[in-house]
Write a structure and sequence with these properties.
- By secondary structure, this protein is mainly beta.
- The protein has a single domain, classed as Jelly Rolls (Sandwich).
- Helices cover 8% and strands 42% of the residues.
- It has 2 helices and 15 strands.
- It has helices at 42-50, 166-171; strands at residues 14-15, 20-21, 26-31, 55-61, 71-78, 82-83, 86-87, 102-108, 110-116, 122-128, 132-135, 140-145, 151-158, 175-180, 183-188.
- The strands form 5 sheets. A 6-stranded antiparallel β-sheet has the order 3-4-5-13-8-11, with no helix packed on it.
- It is globular, with a radius of gyration of 17 Å.
- It binds fructose -6-phosphate (F6R) and zinc ion.
- Residues 59, 74, 76, 90-93, 102, 141, 143, 155, 157, 163 line the site of fructose -6-phosphate.
Length: 192
């Protein structure tokens, strides 16, 4: 038992339609201007920023001790839309503790969880309401919204996992999801 005493159990309310947590301790909001360097069409991103710099995604969290044994959980809400032809997506990251896995349960929307390893493997798992995706240890992960409504997921992972964005920022993922003429196209690329 910790010397500081036992933590009290608690519950939270989640609006499954709006994809928001009632009374979160923290909301991390990412706008178009935070996504420079991530999309293929940089000029289209600049146009989106100039047109009002919209909010692209939010993460709602409760504050928990960032210690082994605790399970961090959050609601991730990614808006629908495109930058040029490319579907809105999260930045994506490895965990700082690279051996920390994560669970994604899709609550609403449609899209993908794109994953990759430093060894060059990649995986693209479909996301839709009721789909649970397991992100194993050592796999970087990014959500992609290819639908027309918000892509909302419940995520759970070891509280001491941390986030490592640096490598994804420079290397990107080997695939991109585009919408062309109303249809989804998955394009492969070496990097970026
Ligand atoms: C936590 C996790 C998700 C993402 C969220 C936003 O480990 O994977 O909660 O943090 O979907 O994506 P990023 O953090 O890549 O901007
Ligand atoms: Zn993660």
């Amino acid at each position: 038992m910790p010397t500081s005493g036992l933590m009290q159990p608690f519950g939270v309310d989640v609006d499954l339609i709006e994809g928001i947590m009632t009374a979160p301790d923290r909301i991390a909001a990412t706008k178009a201007s935070d996504m420079r360097g991530y999309y293929q069409d940089a000029a289209a991103l600049e146009r989106l920023i100039e047109s009002g710099d919209p909010l692209l995604y939010e993460v709602f969290e409760k504050r928990l001790p960032l210690e082994p044994g605790h399970v961090m959980f959050c609601i991730s809400k990614l808006q629908p839309g495109r930058v040029g032809q490319e579907c809105f997506m999260t930045k994506g990251h490895y965990h700082e503790t690279a051996g920390a896995a994560e669970l994604y349960l899709c609550l609403r929307g449609r899209g993908y969880l794109l994953m990759k390893t430093a060894e060059g493997q990649s995986a693209l798992e479909p996301m839709y309401r009721g789909r649970l995706v397991y992100v194993p240890p050592y796999w970087a992960h990014r959500s992609i919204n290819s639908g027309q409504e918000p892509l909302i997921s419940l995520c759970a992972y070891p509280a001491d996992a941390g986030h490592n964005y640096g490598e994804i920022e420079t290397e990107g993922f080997p695939q991109r999801v585009l919408l062309r003429g109303g249809g989804e196209v998955i394009v492969s690329q070496a990097a970026g």
